[in-house]
Automatic annotation (TrEMBL), chains A, B:
SUPFAM superfamilies: 6-phosphogluconate dehydrogenase C-terminal domain-like, NAD(P)-binding Rossmann-fold domains. This is Predicted oxidoreductase, contains short-chain dehydrogenase (SDR) and DUF2520 domains. It comes from Aquiflexum balticum DSM 16537. PANTHER family: CONSERVED HYPOTHETICAL ALANINE AND LEUCINE RICH PROTEIN. Residues 4-90 form the Pyrroline-5-carboxylate reductase catalytic N-terminal domain. Residues 129-253 form the DUF2520 domain. InterPro entries: 6-PGluconate_DH-like_C_sf (IPR008927), DUF2520 (IPR018931), NAD(P)-bd_dom_sf (IPR036291), P5C_Rdtase_cat_N (IPR028939), TM1727-like_C_sf (IPR037108). It comes from the Bacteria.
Length: 258, 258
């Protein structure tokens, strides 16, 4: 099933999603941006899409309207947009509920959340991206499944009550693991050591963890209960009290988890 | 330059290092293990190596002796081993100094530390492994460089004073990033959600971070200064005080780092 779709927003997700939807055979009819220049730079990546900076879509041929803007900007956009009858309005955020679309003129609402980190400068293969779907309306959910399936084989229907857990889990898995690399980079730089030498270890650690599960693959002084080394490391980090505290707390949690 | 080498130890590093050294053209003459069965299971992976459970190597043809055992077992082994004249004795640990080999009968000592995580069930390509080398003797250091170069293009000469910083950095990069995945797995499991859906995000996060640097690639509620979400997440984690504390402390450190 091929859809006619309008995209509202010009950020990283819209930037990748637009062309991917066209590659999958759908038609992007319009791209909305408050800044028309930004909307135009995205329509240049598309076949027939028209750039727009007003929210009157009453004459649009699109059936699905995808809001892909910062979390804090979704509600204003949803409230203002004028939609044709029988439209489906969705957003692509993982941390905002369905209810934010409740005051819109849409007949049906949903969430189409690509669980991935997007940046304009990196190519992204959508067939690896899991799509997390939500809607109160079964027919809409079926439509969103078809749409997601045309982009990726990985789809999950999410319940509202699970969204927060999923987001917290993603923060640990992505933001916090990245911060561990950041702290590691800083320790190396401070000592004048080349961070390159740690990269193969990081790649193998994460690959192994994803293959066998992080519980089975933990190594290091904490899981060995090597309190001598833990204390030495804690002392070593005394130039930054907060980082020393992070070292202590995570080590304690590793000790307590086994 | 091809070496004759004896391996002392039968753990994960020895298991991979022995065959890799032979593939690089060196000869493994003996494998020592306190448990002769374990030594034999490693010699079966090698051409001519003899399994031994005694430490008298006075008649060995080897010139380089590699101790590859748990950190706490290095010193006893180094003290007991009887070596031929002009031998080089090295260990493969990243957290133990050169001085631990000081009481041995070796003419020269050094460290040949493969900075990687090893497990018997996973194949490992040594050409990706950085070797960290150390010796007080320049000729020995040259020999170790040649040996390491035969296994991998990545070698770094490390000074004793840098070893601790490197180890602390590796704990953050590997052990702690793995623990972040562990905590994420647990949050998902507790909610009955499939951890599979987070794997593409993790892979992309780490790839991007290694390519562009973790400072540039940080995302999430902390760096956005989204205190509403941070507080919601903290409340959500109230079933485990220590994990909630980890969430708070790392978020604070992300906020403070930008």
């Amino acid at each position: 099933m091929k859809f006619k779709i309008a995209i509202l927003g010009t950020g990283n997700v819209a930037w990748h999603l637009g062309p991917a939807l066209e590659d999958a055979g759908h038609t992007i009819t319009e791209v909305f941006g408050r800044d028309i220049e930004k909307a135009s730079s995205l329509t240049k990546r598309l076949y027939v899409a028209e750039a727009k900076d007003d929210l009157d879509f009453s004459d649009s041929e699109a059936r699905i309207f995808i809001i892909s803007v910062s979390d804090h900007a979704i509600s204003e956009l949803a409230d203002e947009i004028i939609l044709p009858e029988e439209s489906i309005l969705v957003h692509t955020s993982g941390s905002v509920g369905l209810d934010i679309l409740g005051y819109s003129s849409a007949a049906y609402t949903g969430i189409l959340y690509p669980l991935q980190t997007f940046s304009k400068e990196r190519r992204l293969d959508f067939s690896d991206v899991p799509f997390l779907l939500e809607s109160d309306d079964q027919t809409t959910l079926q439509q969103l499944k078809k749409l997601a399936k045309s982009l990726s084989p990985h789809q999950y229907v999410i319940k509202s009550k699970d969204r927060k857990a999923l987001h917290v889990a993603a923060v640990f898995a992505s933001n916090f693991s990245n911060h561990m690399l950041r702290l590691s980079e800083e320790i190396m730089a401070r000592q004048g050591l080349d961070f390159e030498m740690l990269k193969p270890l990081i790649i193998e650690t994460i690959s192994k963890s994803l293959e066998l599960g992080a519980k089975k693959t933990q190594t290091g002084p904490a899981i060995r209960g090597d309190f001598g080394v833990l204390d030495e490391h804690y002392q070593f980090l005394n130039y930054n009290e907060q980082v020393a505290e992070i070292y202590k707390l995570i080590s304690q949690d590793i000790i307590d988890s086994y």
